[in-house]
Amino acid sequence: MNSNNPFFRTKSFKENNDVTYNAEVIDYNQTMTVSGTINKSFLMLILLIASASITWMMTFNGQNPILLAMGGAIVGFVLVLIATFRPQSSGFLAPGYAIFEGLFIGGISAIFEVMYPGIVIQAVSCTFVTFMVCFGLYKYGIVTVNEKFRSIVIAATLAIATYYLFSWLLSLFTSFQPVHYGNSMASIGISAFVIVVAALNLFLDFDQIERGVQQRLPKYMEWYGAMGLMITLVWLYIEFLRLLSKLSKK
């Protein structure tokens, strides 16, 4: 059971011959449930929005939120790394991630909003609609996650991550201008492709959560699953911001 989401690529979500590792379960009341994961996802979303309002208001009050936003992004990334190796600590790491990542989301959203008025509500709407469509397709079995599906999505995600990493490094030390910069048709095409791949990751996340419930993983894995889903949604939202900003320049 593999997922490109680094959160779900740990032994906590791996299965081998129906044996689940790193998960000791006592009774059903202490196991992961879909409803529990959904509730925790909503709680994380509320925390993220509340936190995002801080750097959002800073921007429109004439203050510079860059340091706070970047600090939030760094701390959020560190919390993700810790939770990847210590999923049993997800109960406080997941809310912490939502709060610190919210600082980043609020700051970057405010900057985009100043440059392109109205873009944030568009990006939020696109993210919400994409999530609901993917959830509906998965829930009603229109899209089935199998090994081939996983392999394709994982390969595409790794290709995107590799491209972004090398483009960033080259732009730091050379005069190289990455293709996805600017608002050329190639750049817009790349952003559209990345959004499609990010959306496909939602199917993998839904599948991993469902499998976790079927395997009767411990209750704390609800926080872990919610955190993994939030990571994908944040990525999807940022990519929508990027695409819409490019289209606004046309």
Supply the key terms.
250 residues, mainly alpha, 7 helices
Fold topology:
Layout (H helix, E strand, L loop, with lengths): L14 E2 L2 E2 L13 H27 L5 H20 L4 H26 L3 H21 L7 H27 L11 H30 L6 H28 L2
Quick structural gist:
This protein has 250 residues and is mainly α. 72% of the residues lie in helices and 2% in strands.
Please provide a written account of the structure.
- This protein has about 250 residues and is mainly alpha-helical.
- The chain has one domain.
- It has helices at about 35-60, 65-85, 90-115, 120-140, 145-175, 185-215, 220-250, and strands at about 15, 20.
- A two-stranded antiparallel sheet has the order 1-2.
- Strand 1 and strand 2 (about 20) form a beta hairpin.
- Helix 1 (about 35-60) crosses helix 3, helix 1 packs across helix 7 and helix 2 packs antiparallel against helix 3 (about 90-115).
- The longest helix has 30 residues, at about 185-215.
- The termini are far apart.
